[in-house]
Amino acid sequence: MTTDDLDAVNGLVGLAKAAFHNLRLLRALEEAGLGQRPRTGEWRAPVYDRAARERLAAAHREGLFLQLRRQMPHLTDEALENRLLAILEHYYATLRQARAQRGCYTTYSRLDLSDVSPRDLDGVLDDLPALLEALAETFLREAPDRSLRVHSQLIGLWQDLILVVPPLLISSTWIYYRAWRTPDAPMGSAGRRALVDRMAMWLCDSTLPVDDDPALDYLCRQHGLDETHMHINGTTEAEKVWRDALFRPQAVAGALIEAMPKVSESGLRLTIGSGVERLLRQEDSHLEGPVLLRRLHDAAAIKAALAEGPSRISAGPANDDTPGADRWGLWLRRMQETLPSYTPLVVQEAWSLCSILAALDAPDSTRSARHLFWHYALLRAQFCRLLVQQAGQTGFDQFQYITLNELRETTEKDFAERFRQIERGQQSGVDFLEARFAPKADPGKLADLLGKMLRGYLRFLDEDAHGRPRKRDQMSRFGSLAELVRVVMDRQDADLTDPGARRLRLGLVAHFIKRFSLKDEAYLTDNKASAPPCRNARMRQESAQQARVLAKLLGNVPQLRHFIRGADAAANERHAGPEALAPAFRILRRAGMKRFTYHAGEDFAHLASGLRAMFEAVLFLDFDAGCRIGHGTAAGLPPQAWWAAIGTSAVLATQDRLDDLVFARHLLLTSGLLLQRLPLIDTEISRLAMQIWGDPRITPDFLTEAWKLRCLDPLAITFDGHDPDLHRRAEALLHARAKSENPATHRHFLRRHGIIGDDPTVTLRQMREEVIRGNRQITVSRQSDVLDEDTLRALQAFVLKFLNQRRIAIETLPSSNVRISIHQRYEDHHAMGWLGLGPQSLPVPMDVVVGSDDPGIFATSLRMEYAHLLRSIREGANEAGDWQNPVDIMERVCLNAKRFRF
Predict the structure, then answer these.
(1) 761 vs 177 pLDDT, higher one
(2) pLDDT surpassing 90 at residue 684
(3) Does residue 668 contact residue 852 with C-beta atoms inside 8 Å?
(4) 764-775 vs 518-525: helix axis angle to the nearest 10?
(5) What is the pLDDT of residues 758-785, one digit of tens each?
(6) d(CA 375, CA 297)
(7) Concatenated DSSP letters of 293-362
């Protein structure tokens, strides 16, 4: 495909994104239907008279142009208009070519494509199915395994498109022309069964088709991919949630409405309001919880009207007052009664969309029906965008608002569907899944959660690749968690000799949540409040309790160790450092757990802060061979690229800056690198230390030794070395050893946590003033930073060498990193250097494994993460003239995952 072709496809993507993000058109469609709303508030099909049609056309043209303006702010209006004309020419040419190849024409289209003016922008409004058709013909094809695939050379543009445009709308349009609008379209129950099987092969239990690269097909067949970083919550694809939202709008939107007060303050140290509420307003300034709920009811009613056919739409205000969700539920149940009982959920949704396209294609279809379809599509797209992190939503906070909005809560009670989605039907590309789950502090709730996951996995194992139940000799009955574990293990063993069995094998990783308490932090600085136990006290107590409960359960049900393979810590790394989880990890290590990973170096105020988080995770959590670091972005970003992305300065707390300098000094001394920088770093450390403590005895060496003690649990200062509890006793002995070796640094460690202890020289008021001074923000300029770019590169090299020597792998997550980090394109991803490619390549490549993180939130899958990485490697190798074979590199990554999986 030539550069001109790619530019043309990029223009088509821009047009589709602008059309589906056209909020002016959405509001105009809503306003047009307000007059038809009865007093009960229920939806009725609106009647679009001439004046209403003119208002809709104006809103469409103006809104689409404004959305394109946001995509291309560097263009003048005249240049943008010329670009839009060129896009329309390509769009109509694509339709002409596709229809000529298929030898078909759509009845509902008012456009005579043989003689159409590219200036006719209204054609996009009048024919949404044609826009979907152009996208389907551009991006999709049928692979040799009969699955629906995306052209490999277009996966970057496809990824950009589906953040805004729901992909199943496009896939269903492709299916419609291949299976519904054909002379041999199946009729009767046997025909429907055959068509369901065919659609299941195309869709593979997913709304997101994968690439068509034969090299990755080979890797999947030969080795199978191993998912080493995926959160089981956040997996469900947005359009599967949408399906539930139309059927149960009150449950789905109600979960969001209930969640908003629980996350009322999302700031780190400032009260800046609800992040979930901001997420809604970022999408649409008019969007609130009740508005979202109303729109779900409207969408259900519109979908029912469209599926019922043009006669129902033309009935207008005479329609009954049945609530929209109930009308859609009735139509859905009638549809399900005509389909085989094993019909996958994604096939059911595609079937309903094809039914709507068929109704729109009917001779008696009206322009009102086409406007209703636009209304439905805009509502669907807006809802899905609330579940998928958008290109402009940079940073971990934006990601976290999606995890907190609870829209997935209702749908994600079914674990079996998530396993189906991950395995992808007959594609069966994933060999092993490490599913991360949040452990509970209550034994009963933890056992219940594990039971739900294992029962869902058992249901999944009891099906074939098409979702049909398989005959079993062994009954799936069990009276306890231990018996359930045994049944699942037996089922897996039996499947080893069954060629029709599911391939996916399950492992579980408990991930602890990093939390920051604004209330706890206020106690450290409020003279009127009593001192808290220590920094991050609440999170330390909760995580220790969760670890104790998990350790006890593993002791009571030893077979669980077959599934629970390790532990992790997730969420915003700025909310808590690795040291806060050290006690919990030690509890699990004493219980026999050996494999650990930790999210670090993902989101940071200064590049050195991210590197420090990675180093501290290994140091404070005692990681050794076989452990992993999640993300590790700070160790891969070129310093100049990081500075270019954030500007000329970085702002961070004085204490954080001091910690970064102490960490950098320690690494430079240890490695013997750039020793000429040490006098500048020492001077800056002393200056900041005097600002906080005003004590010349607190030297750089003193601060380094105190920093190394952060693996201790400050809560354990009250524990006794003779405590009958093993864990309390072990923590107390660590304190006793540190205190005997260096009492002064031990006292300083406690002082940092607001614990005065037996130090008579420090008062509570003085300690609080020190915390306030440490929290003051300072600006670090790029030009004057003592940690200049050479120093940052040296620190990156040391951290990577440190990981390599300990045989610790890095989990790289392309889509997650592109959304959360500074990358603008997959081709810029920092993993290239870790794999030995490009100017940032390492003399000894790192052990790198690939994960999908939260595939539902990033609209991806493990296979697509491999595809994005392979495409980037190919482009990088071509530009640099590198001799390495990209496929060999990806095979090494694939085999690394098998070595490092838990």
Answers:
(1) 177
(2) yes
(3) no
(4) 120
(5) 777 888 788 888 989 999 999 999 999 9
(6) 13
(7) HHHHHHHHHHHHHHHH-HHHHHTGGGS----HHHHHHHHHHHHHHHS-TT--HHHHHHHHHHHHHHHHTS
pLDDT of residue 312: 60
pLDDT digits (tens, 9 = 90+) for 408-431: 999 999 899 999 999 999 999 999
Structure tokens at 523: 């106690």
Could you tell me the CA-to-CA distances from 309 to 316, 363, 372, 782 in Å, in that order? 12, 11, 12, 63
Residue 690 structure tokens: 């005097």
Residue 589 token pair: 């290590």
3-20 and 77-102 are packed helices; what angle lies between their axes, rounded to 10 degrees? 100
The 3-class secondary structure across 573-609, one letter per residue, is: HHHCCHHHHHHHHHHHHHCCCCEEEEEECCCCCCHHH
Residue 642 reports pLDDT greater than 90: yes
Helix (H, G, I), strand (E, B) or coil at 53: helix
What is the reported pLDDT for 788?
97
Render pLDDT for 836-863 as a digit per residue (tens, 0 to 9): 887 777 777 799 999 999 999 999 999 9
Neighbour count for residue 713 (Cβ, 10 Å): 23
Q: Residue with structure tokens 């001779």?
A: 363
Match 């300072």 to its residue by tokens. 778
Q: How much of the chain exceeds pLDDT 70, in percent?
A: 91
3-state secondary structure of 437: strand
Decide: helix, strand or coil at residue 506. strand
Concatenate the DSSP letters of all residues of 107-156 into one string: TT----GGG--TT-THHHHH-HHHHHHHHHHHHEEE-TTS-EEE-GGGHH
- Exposed/middle/buried for residue 575 (C-beta within 10 Å: 0-12, 13-18, 19+): middle
| Residues 229-260: tens digit of each pLDDT | 999 999 999 999 999 999 999 999 999 998 88
Considering only CA atoms, which of 107, 127, 43 is closest in space to residue 312? Answer: 43
Q: How confident is the model at residue 110 (pLDDT cuts 50, 70, 90)?
A: very low
**Spatial distance between the Cα atoms of 609 and 377, rounded to a whole number of angstroms:** 43
The span from the CA of 622 to the CA of 425, in Å, is 40
What amino acid occupies position 318?
A
Question: 543, 511 in Cβ contact below 8 A?
Answer: no
- Per-residue three-class SS string for 534-554: CCCHHHHHHHHHHHHHHHHHH
Say how far residue 749 (Cα) sits from the centre of its chain: 36
